[in-house]
Design a protein that fits this description.
The protein is mainly alpha-helical. Helix content is about 75%, strand content about 0%. Helix 4 runs parallel beside helix 6.
Length: about 130
């Protein structure tokens, strides 16, 4: 991750661009960085107006990226959950409420396992044994 940052630095033209690039990589590499604490510390600097010019857009882009990634992950999980439910209906014709309830709480990894086990399971009881 250091090399892309250095490459971007070498192509930047101003100090603000250097700062923006550094902050972008800092937020990308440190997802646990407390953004509110960072902003509070930044306000203590001699030129806090840089916060509006550089830091906020950089942080906003990071938050957009994070939200976009989480949205994609949730969408994939939702699609897998629907597919597994359809597979269950095709194979077993009816799904008792207890299994539908379990299905709604399974993690992505468990859903993947279930999707594979549907092919060989002879009963819902066998299928939902984790």
């Amino acid at each position: 991750t250091l090399f892309p940052m250095l490459w971007d630095y070498s192509r930047s033209k101003t100090g603000l661009e250097y700062l923006e690039t550094l902050l972008y990589y800092l937020f990308k590499a440190s997802p646990n960085l407390e953004k509110d604490a960072f902003i509070e510390e930044f306000h203590k600097l001699p030129n806090p107006e840089l916060l509006e010019e550089v830091v906020m857009p950089t942080m906003a882009q990071q938050w957009i990226d994070e939200g976009f990634e989480k949205g994609i992950e949730k969408g994939i999980e939702k699609g897998l959950r629907r597919t597994v439910e359809k597979q269950l209906l095709i194979k077993f014709r009816e799904i008792p409420a207890i299994y539908l309830s379990q299905l709604s709480t399974l993690s992505f990894a468990q859903l993947e396992t279930l999707a594979e086990r549907i092919l060989t399971a002879q009963s819902l009881e066998e299928l939902f044994r984790f």
